[in-house]
Amino acid sequence: MGLRITQTAYYVPPKVVTNDDLSQLMDTSDAWIKSRTRIEQRHVSTGEQTSDLSLQVAQKLLAESGWTADSLDFIIVATMSPDYLTPATAAIVQGQIGATKAMAFDINAACSGFIYALVQANHLLQGSYQRGMVIGAETLSKLVDWHERSTAVLFGDGAGGVLVESSPNPQVGILAEDLRAFGQDQQYLTAGYQPVQNIFMSSKPAGNPYFAMDGRRVYYFATHEVPNSVQRALKKAPLTGEQVDWWLLHQANGRIVEAIANHLHQPQERFLTNVASYGNTSAASIPILLAETVAQEKLQRGQRVVLSGFGGGLTVGSVVLTY
Ligand code: ACO
Fold it and tell me: In the UniProt entry, which residues are flagged as the active site (predicted)?
C-alpha cells in the first residue's frame, strides 16, 4: 500500500508585514534581513486563530477534491501554536467541517511537524484507514516578542495541507522515512514556556513565553542534521540524490537551504523556496511550498520528491516520496 497525495492547498492571512515595516518597529533593516535569511515579507494574523487557518485549508481541500467530509477517517494537524492545549486543533477542524467518522489529533514536532504527521498518516494508511487530511498550521506571531529583533524578523503565520489516501500501487507515496529527535539540545530553540503555577505555590514562576533561540546553534544543526537525515532516507529508498526531481525543505532561512544543497552536491534550482514571501511558518512551511509547487505545475505525477523539516526539539524529519 502506498500513500497517495490527492490534493494540496494552502492559506495565509491577508496582512503582509514587510521588512521595511519591521524596521519602523525595531532596529533592523531590509538589507540585514534579506542578506541573513532571504526573507522579504511575512503574513501575520490579525485575529484568525490556528484553527481558523486550518479550516480554510480543510475547506479548500474538500472543495477542490470533491471529497465529502464524512469520507475522512482521520485528521492530523501539525502545530506548535494551537488555539488550546485541549481541544486539539484537529478536533476543532473535524467538528467544523463535519467529518463525523474521522478521529482527530495534533502533533507537535515544531518545524518537523508536517513530516512527522505525514509519516503517521502513512502508517495509518498501511492499516485499516483509507483516507485522511494532514495539515500544518501556525500562528507564530503570538509566540514572537515583537521587541526582540533577533527572532521577530524570522517568523510568519500560515497553513497548508494535503488529502491522502491508500493506494494499491506500492510505487506511489512514501518510499522511505527518517525521523529523529535531539532532546539534549532542546534549549537552543524554545517558545511558549508554561511553568506550573497554582494556589499551592507562594511565588510566581519565571519563564519566557516567547521564542528564544541560539540562532547559530540552530543554523549549524540544520545544515548538518538535514543532510544526514536525507541521506539516511535516500539510502533506505534506495535512491541517489541525482534521482530526486525536487527538494522541498522547511523554509526557515534561504541560506540554510542553499547550504544544504551545497552539502548534498545537488543543484540549487531543484531546491524550491518561498521563504521570501512567508518567512518561517514552522509546520506550515512545507505544505505551503508543496501546494504552490503543485499549483505551478512544477511537480508532476510520478516525480520523486524529498521533503525535510527541522527545528524545535530539536527534531529533524525527512521523507522520500513519489508524487
Ligand atoms: N537586524 C539587525 N541586526 C540584527 C538582527 C536584526 N533583525 N538580529 C540580530 N542582529 C545583529 C546581532 O545583534 C549581531 O550583532 P553583534 O555582532 O553586534 O552582536 C549581528 O546582527 C549578527 O548576529 P548573528 O546572530 O551572529 O547573525 P547570523 O548571521 O548568525 O544570523 C540568524 C542570525 C538569521 C538567526 C541565523 O543564525 C539563522 O538563521 N539561524 C537559524 C535559525 C532558524 O532556522 N530558526 C528556526 C528553526 S525552525 C523552528 O523550529 C521554529
Answer: 111, 250, 280
Q: Which residues contact 209 (CB under 8 A, 6 or more apart)?
A: 143, 191, 192, 193, 194
Q: Which of 19, 43, 250, 253 is catalytic?
A: 250
> CB pairs under 8 A, 24+ apart, for 123-126?
124/73, 124/74, 125/1, 125/3, 125/164, 125/165, 125/166, 126/1, 126/166
Which helix (H) or strand (E) covers residue 65, if one does? helix 50-65
Domains of the chain by start residue, with CATH: 2-167 (3.40.47.10), 173-322 (3.40.47.10)
| pLDDT tens sequence across 40-58 | 999 999 999 999 999 999 9
Examine the residue annotation and report whether 250 is marked as an active-site residue of this protein: yes
Q: Tell me the CA–centroid distance for residue 48 and ligand 1, in Å.
A: 28
In the structure grid, which three cell numbers stand for residue 21, read together? 515595516
